Sequence to fold (200 residues):
Amino acid sequence: MNKNRYRIGVLTSGMSRGSNLLAIRNWFNENQLPVDISFVVVTHRRAPVIERCQYFGLEHIFVSTKDMAEFEERVLTLISEREIDLIVLAGFLKKLSAEFLEKAAIPTLNIHPALLPKYGGEGMYGSNVHKEVFRNQESESGATVHYVNKCYDEGEIILQRKVGLEGCESPEQVAERVLKIEHETYAPAIWEALQRHRKL
Ligand code: GAR
Fold:
């Protein structure tokens, strides 16, 4: 394996469309940085992200989350076999255990579609977040990339970017604005974390 490059593994879910995955891939390519997406774990046979993986030649591996202990065991094996430097959650919604995070011994990052610590926690994901933000008539929202710890959305923040919500007339419009910011935020945050934990 090429030791001069970083390797990341991506975990997704049935709701993942793969838009962040693609933005990450494109940003590292465009900036000619030594980062490869080694694998994309998919947890649903019909997840929209699969089509994107196929189209862009990214290896996807199906791992069921029905039994989370088995899921974590399988991902730990992948981390070790592929010599992964960092795990990226892209729409992955299950809680990872403290034991998994400790055994993995590499940073695990998540992107959340709001300005944490607001609008975080169990059940706050995807459209649920944007509905709440819209209901509360917030003037801004944004994207937060943070380390994953054993509590939902509570790990240390690496990068947060805001977006104004003037003129947004629905939660869907909020989601659209936030997603654009997510795409600009995730890859630079991953790069920052790789530098902090530098092994090359
Ligand atoms: C993203 O909007 C991400 O912020 C959200 O899932 C979506 C995945 O979309 N994650 C969470 O809400 C986690 N709490 P994508 O597959 O198009 O990147």
